[in-house]
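Help: why these numbers?

___
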Amino acid sequence: MPTDKKAIGLRLREVREATPYWSRGKLARLLRAAADPREREDLPHVQSLTDMIKQWESGKHLPAPRYRKLYARVLAEPEPTPAHLLPVMDLPTSSGHPADGAFVEALRRTNEDLVRLDGQWGGHDVLSLAVRVFRRAHHKIGTGAHEPAIERDLLAAAGETGEITAWLAYDADQQALSRQLIMEALMLSRQAGDLDMELFELSHLAMQSLHLNRPTEAMRITAAVLDEDLPPRVAALFELRRARVLAQSGDEHRAMAAIEKVRCVLSDSVSPRDPRWTWWLNETEVNRHKATAYTRLRQWERAVPLHEEVVVDDRAAHVYGNLDMTQLLEALVHVRDWRRAEDVITEIAVLGEAITRGRAASLLRGVLKQIRRAGNAPSTVTDTAETLERALA
């Protein structure tokens, strides 16, 4: 008799909801925490695993055996204490101590911590710590202060640290630093033979080229990678980059076709060929890129509902979404929806210090100028805009 996926999915949901405060995101974190360190390296990250839990509970797919094993561990063991969720950051501090296997393992755990902290606090707050970690690992490599047997693993782990740090610098709007870091990271990953991370770093370069209004450069990087035989989700990421280039160039039809192609790819399950870093490429990310593409095309009415959906998803996932809210505010100002703009700008103001730095702050400065020049904005909006302008100054 065929397996009743719907019944199993319903039971999985009942078990999760029977435990107070277990959202799908929290269950995803617990499943990862229940895995052995080597198992964890091959698992999707939290957001992708959250999406998979949703599919299991809906009866669309059944959990693979390794996930059933993790479910059993989580349900049989007490919930980890908050101390388990604190950052590790336990790299040996002695500069004279050669890096060994323990150093590499600590570096990989720290990379996971940096990603989590970025989601909670944003690039600006985490950047200085990440730079210190990367420089420490880079120094070990450059001076040869490591055991020969772990050189490749150290190169690969440090390349990943460099990529994470480059992202944090990008998010903090320190673009020159970000470009320097990603080039160093790319060299390390290439020396390690870590093709998966090298592709991630090339996607960063293409993303940054778009941000700096260098679409030809971004297309050159993207086209070269898309010529290769890529795992499905990696190809989807570079297809998103291509869509953004097309939108910057004003080619709406081809840009939207590329985005919908990506959506079709992501509707399938994760392929065994997909690198673990593709965990964050999901429906929310596609909507984020589509909204930004419409923004580039000056089609603000179409951008608004997509930005709103992304902000709602941010809240549900408890992730850092200041830039998403600022992009939503920008679109609302352009369509002169002052009632909704008032709600959003008030929420931004409540964030206070967190919104006054990085890419979000750079965009917000321009949006506040637009409000001041609009002429028909209500005083509740202009007064809040003035308060934010003083904070940014």
User: Anything to note?
Assistant: Residues 78-88 have pLDDT under 50 and may be disordered.
